[in-house]
Amino acid sequence: MDTYEVIILIFGILYVLNGLFGCTCGSAKFLTSNTEWKYRTLIIHLFTYVNALILGTLTILAIALQKSWLLGPTIIHALIRIVAQCFYIVITFKGYRNEDDANEQDERRKRISTIGTYVIAVILDMIYMIVAILCVQVLNEKSDASNWSVHPSRG
Fold this sequence. Notes:
The protein is mainly α and 155 residues long. The protein has helices at residues 3-32, 39-65, 71-94, 102-150.
């Protein structure tokens, strides 16, 4: 296995674990919460974690089956995640107010931590995309090499 394949496989496993953990914890938080949860928030969070689950599963399948074409949709999927996370950062930042009461200070801290979390997520998704593109090249080279070894009459 090439280095890029190992790195992308680790990303895939982490995405699957993130998706499983997020879906179960998000559902458990919704079911056990005494506060009034908005359904829209639950749906957005579960959708995010289901997306991570899909991304991780396709990544693991691409490496396990040695099929570079399976990484194509994951690269597009990661790009869509990056755009969505950037929109979420902008929306969260626009909700920021400069009032000085105690509740607003707590709200400001929450917004800053949320923005920081999504900035880290964007960076990780960008790293994933770069490594996935490099991995596609490696898998294509392996495929080409195996095609030449199977059919020596080509050329």
